[in-house]
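Field: sequence (string)
Field: structure_tokens (string)

Example rows 1 and 2, in order.
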Amino acid sequence: MVRMKRTLLGLLLMLLLVGGGTQVVAQSARPEGRVALESTSIAAGVGVDWGDGTLRFDGQDYKFSVSGLSLGDWGISKVNAVGNVYHLARPADLAGTYVAG
């Protein structure tokens, strides 16, 4: 249960980072796109996370994937998340390395 909460928190943090700002900014700006993400995590001390998502931007869908490692975690979890994307000029701006804490 703790692992699932950590993973969900990490994914929500990632979506916030992808959104480019805080909730205050998000409320005052118009979203440029929308992200849907499904992720799975398996951990026994050292864990792996992976998932696939879709960015809806300018009327088109762009597929992407996420992956990562974790330390000191135990359990299995699956998360589905959907959120708005802010301050994205083009789909390629989504690419990068993100860190969840």
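Row 2 begins here:
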Amino acid sequence: MVREPGMEQAMREDLGHLPGLAEKPMFGGLCFLSDGHMICAARHGRAMYRVGKTREPDALALPGTARMVHNGRAYAGWVYLDEHQLSDDATRARLTGWAKDCVRALPPKE
């Protein structure tokens, strides 16, 4: 799958200096992780964010979002942001903030 360096850089900037931040090629794109927990990922034509089950309704109310479905399975707490909304800094910032909050609440990985 084709990677999109511009989108990856925008997501890097959105995440800022997060402790334990790492990048890993996965799912045909680039995933961003904090202490081993996936926060978000840049893929060709869309991004995905781990907003958590409690924030999922809020995330799905934003324009250009959809529940993450992979291989026919819906993933609760994960949303896609389509390519038309990727340039909306405010939408990305909101999703990034929720994703960071979600991951901060997870127990450390062993």
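free_text_note (row 2): The mean pLDDT is 92.
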